[in-house]
Write a structure and sequence with these properties.
Layout (H helix, E strand, L loop, with lengths): L1 H11 L35 H6 L4 E3 L4 H8 L6 E3 L14 H20 L10 E10 L6 E2 L5 H14 L1 E13 L8 E14 L5 H8 L21 E5 L2 H5 L3 H16 L16
Parallel strand pairs: 1-2, 1-3
Antiparallel strand pairs: 3-4, 3-5, 5-6, 6-7
Helix pairs in contact: 1-6, 5-6
């Protein structure tokens, strides 16, 4: 494994013979990579909940292109991308689990309040929000996006030296109720956890070569598992797409659950299904 990674490093960083442009700055978006023509997609899943949603408004409250791509596998033609305008200013003193869940909930509720009375498009049938954090194994703190090349190097060295770290993604799904029953919506949430193990044989030279690609500059934790960042990782335990930002299996499950609750709100908690004597 070490030899293959060093060979890749030599190919990536053969700067002695080939002149190249300097990498983009950290305050600029990561460069887009043309990965060629996409592979043909299989037919969409023939599931009742997805079939119903294909004729309704579905909102992904995220501007992440990776989450949009993963959601596209569900074959929802009316999927809208409406990022939340809520401030992500919750205190980092919260534990990672609490922080990521509260942030995703805040995103979903902000978009719900914005779109529920949309007179032009009508109310959405489903709003899905997500938030992903990488946890520093040495301190238990949430890792931010790298602020500079030096910070990026330090972050990845720390992850390599610690070997193991965890990635959490919170999912929050909201759907308007068929009735006007308070609070007017069904909501479901969950947090998916994946353990990631970095390769101890990754050298500082390889880390620097990766950092200079800037692929991980816009990502919490400083690496992208779906791209070149995979050369830093030995293995994962859990959902691969959870590390990317949206665990598809869990997403489908939470969609099925919240849509069932919205359509059958007689069974919602706090309602015994009996009519009031005053009615």
């Amino acid at each position: 494994m070490k030899e293959s990674k060093e060979a890749l490093l030599s190919h990536m960083n053969d700067s002695d013979n080939i002149e190249s442009d300097p990498p983009p700055a950290y305050d600029k978006p990561a460069p887009k990579v043309n990965r060629g023509a996409p592979l043909p997609r299989p037919p969409p899943l023939n599931l009742p909940v997805l079939n119903r949603l294909r004729s309704q408004r579905v909102i992904l409250a995220s501007q992440s292109p990776r989450r949009k791509q993963i959601m596209s596998f569900l074959g929802l033609p009316n999927l809208e991308i409406i990022p939340s305008n809520a401030n992500e200013d919750l205190p980092k003193s919260l534990g990672p689990f609490e922080y990521v869940l509260a942030t995703a909930t805040k995103k979903a509720q902000a978009v719900y309040e914005q779109e529920i009375n949309n007179e032009i498009k009508g109310e959405p049938a489903l709003i899905l929000a997500a938030d992903t954090v990488v946890v520093d194994p040495s301190t238990g703190n949430i890792l931010e996006k790298p602020r500079s090349e030096a910070h990026h190097m330090t972050m990845l060295r720390s992850l390599r030296d610690a070997r193991n770290h965890k990635v959490y993604t919170a999912l929050v799904a909201m759907a308007p109720l068929a009735s006007a029953r308070d609070p007017g919506y069904a909501i479901e949430s969950m947090v998916e956890e994946t353990a990631v193990r970095f390769d101890s044989e990754v050298t500082d030279e390889l880390i620097m070569a990766y950092v200079r690609t800037r692929e991980g500059a816009d990502k919490a934790g400083g690496y992208g598992l779906q791209g070149l960042g995979s050369i830093l990782v030995e293995k994962i335990d859990g959902s691969y797409d959870n590390v990317i930002g949206l665990p598809l299996k869990a997403t489908l499950k939470i969609i099925e659950t919240v849509m069932q609750r919205a359509e059958d709100d007689d069974e919602m908690p706090g309602d015994d299904g009996e009519e009031s004597e005053d009615e």
